[in-house]
Design a protein that fits this description.
There is one protein chain. The protein is α/β, with parallel strands linked by helices. The chain folds into 2 domains: 3-296, 3-Layer(aba) Sandwich (UDP-N-acetylmuramoyl-L-alanine:D-glutamate ligase); 304-431, Mur ligase, C-terminal domain (Protein-Tyrosine Phosphatase, Chain A, Alpha-Beta Complex). It has helices spanning 3-13, 25-33, 52-65, 94-112, 121-136, 173-176, 180-187, 204-217, 261-281, 287-296, 320-334, 351-361, 378-384, 396-405, 419-431; strands spanning 43-47, 70-73, 85-87, 90-91, 141-145, 162-165, 197-199, 221-223, 228-236, 239-246, 250-256, 304-307, 311-315, 338-344, 364-369, 390-395, 411-417. An 8-stranded mixed β-sheet has the order 4-3-2-5-1-6-7-8, with helices on both faces. A 6-stranded mixed β-sheet has the order 12-13-17-14-15-16, sandwiched between helices. The model has no long low-confidence stretch (mean pLDDT 94).
Amino acid sequence: MDTEFTKALQWLNGRLKFGIKPGLERMNYMLEQLEHPERRLKVVHVAGTNGKGSTVSFMRHILQAAGYTVGTFTSPFIEAFNERISINGVPISDDDFVAIVNTVKPIVEKVEGTPYGAPTEFEVLTVIAIEYFAKVAVSDITIMETGLGGRLDSTNVVHPLLTIITNIGHDHMDVLGDTIEDIATEKAGIIKSGISVITAVEQKAALDVIKETCRQKRSKLYQLGKDFNYFDVNQEHETEKFSFTSAYNSISGLEISMKGKHQIKNSTVALMAIQYLKQYYFYHIEEDHIKSGLKNTFWIGRFEKMSQNPLIYVDGAHNPEGIDALCETIQRYYSNKKVKIIFCAMKDKALQQMVAKLDQIADTITFTQFEYPRCAFAADLYKLSTSAMKHMEANWQIAIENEIKIMKENEVLIITGSLYFISKVRQVIKNI
């Protein structure tokens, strides 16, 4: 790895020690020093508990099929840090990253000496992304995920063409609040005056918060199941098939390779966003762009097949809603197979609830851990399980190797939990 890139990345990672300090003052100060590059961007802003990355990927592939240059800002990374900032799926180069860090670093040091305080790692990374998309690899459109919540998230400095809130679930409750209403309020904080909102949120309490925010901001709300929807759902040859309808048009014969009904929802939200961009911002997107874009969409670490024989999947189901989607997908595709699960999660998640759901779907379940400050101990996860076929192996690599050695033809191995864990797992399985 390039030495200069290593130094730049180490400097950025060093910002972690400053933790989370609410507020957008530091962001606005830094962007002002850079002559407000965020004002040059055409942004779609995406928040939600789950499904952000998949929705971004569906949109990116469709827009790219239509010939547009698409910037994406996502998290966390799975294979390489650079992938969080990408153009048409190609991560920012080491050289460009280093150059922008060298530009931003004096500004970061300058803001540290002000009453605003030291910027966090994610705040600095957001500034780097904005600078990259605005001045270096200029994008036709940029799709930005929030990092955490929305209202005080560092990405909330953009003024978007369109806002998307994928769903609301129980995650990061230590920061966002204890109730669905609290979490929805934080997510709805990205809604800007007069900017339309597309959502797949289903819970009435959360939806009421979003509706009221839209009313106050005079923002048009497009709601899944009301203003747009999917229908004619079926699966064939390991693909999901469905049709789409909205006030603008209907499209039949759509296919996605990403498995699960939740991915049909995510792709439907992406489709509504595409229709909106086409209708109001004159993006030239034809039906064949949509069909090819959807079919070619993938998002690593999301029910991703790592091996056919033996049959192995990895899935970053890191909260209760993610586990629900995983269980539904397993039942949808592999109800005829014995399900073996390896699970590892962060200790600040709703572990009791997550383990209980996995106990119901798994024929055998193994709990493990990896080196990470927030990682739950395998022994603690094991204690939460009521499965008669539960196992514990603190060494996650041994846990995987042991399961692979004894796998049979009628079995499927699902390795799931933290996305940070999945990142490590993918490399090991590739080597095996």
